[in-house]
Amino acid sequence: MKITWFGHSCFLLEGSKRILIDPFLSQNPLAPVKPEDVDADIILVTHGHGDHLGDAAEISKRCKAPVICIYELSIILGKRGVEAIGMNIGGTYRLEDVSVTLVKAVHSADVVSGDEIISAGNPVGFVINMDGVVIYHAGDTDVFMDMKLIGEIYRPRIAMLPIGDFYTMGIRGALKAIELLKPEIVIPMHYNTFPPIKQNPEEFKREAEKLGVKVIILKPGESFEI
Ligand code: NI
Ligand code: MN
């Protein structure tokens, strides 16, 4: 599988399917690609905030790729003409050699539309199993004890964790998340996009590797193979 980071929380996983997560591209000053340059078979959106929902609607329509998300957000997207598969926490979507499970995240999740705040269900993380590789994308969240359950039930090999602080957990929380999840590889995300979430990923890497995990710091646009 090839894993590419497009900055913030946006990843493209390319295996037997192309899975795009939280495609925040056109409004992200650090995104290395435009929405029209990214193709996907399935799009996953962790919650309705603009820096995650991003360009999902546009890419979904162009690629005829359904958006998998929490039920209430799927209703909002449906009204905007997007094919959305609305699920709930604990549920698993399956397509050939891919499964996607919605798991808990501790955050807020409403959609802001002009002056309006539209209730959009709970935020989620995703556990993705593609071709036998299990990846946990935490979405926006603080650390929470049930990450231990996520680790025990799904045994993710790779964990994508926010480290930016301010809107999510910071480095200290992410280190505790590693202890609970026990992954083999950690990829930090949701940092340095905006001034309030400025972090030094090398500091995170130094501390995390003391816990026995491998940390892969990607630059926006960079990939690695697993
Ligand atoms: Ni958020
Ligand atoms: Mn966010």
How would you explain this protein's 3D organization?
With 226 residues, the chain is an alpha/beta fold. It has one domain (2-217): Metallo-beta-lactamase, Chain A, CATH 3.60.15.10. Helix content is 22%, strand content 30%. The protein has 6 helices and 16 strands. The protein has helices at residues 50-53, 56-63, 71-79, 147-154, 171-181, 201-209, and strands at residues 2-5, 11-14, 18-21, 42-44, 67-70, 84-87, 92-95, 98-104, 111-113, 116-118, 124-130, 133-137, 158-162, 185-189, 214-215, 223-225. The strands form 3 sheets. Strands 6-5-4-3-2-1-16 form a 7-stranded mixed sheet. It has a 7-stranded mixed sheet with strand order 7-8-11-12-13-14-15, with helices on one face. The protein has a two-stranded antiparallel ribbon with strand order 9-10. The termini are close together. 45% of the residues are buried. The site of manganese (II) ion has 6 residues, from helix 1.
Brief descriptors of the model:
Metallo-beta-lactamase, Chain A, 7-stranded mixed β-sheet, binds manganese (II) ion, 22% helix, alpha/beta
Q: CATH class, anyone?
A: Alpha Beta
Give the strand line-up of the largest sheet.
6-5-4-3-2-1-16
Percent of residues in β-strands:
25-35%
Mean pLDDT: 98
The distinct bound ligands, ions and cofactors come out as: nickel (II) ion, manganese (II) ion
Q: What is Rg?
A: 16 Å
Shape: globular
Instruction: Give the helix level as a range of percent.
Output: 10-25%
Largest sheet report? 7 strands, mixed
CATH superfamily: Ribonuclease Z/Hydroxyacylglutathione hydrolase-like
Amino-to-carboxy terminus distance: 5 Å
Structural class: alpha/beta
How many domains? 1
Order of helices and strands: EEEEHHEHEEEEEEEHEHEHEE
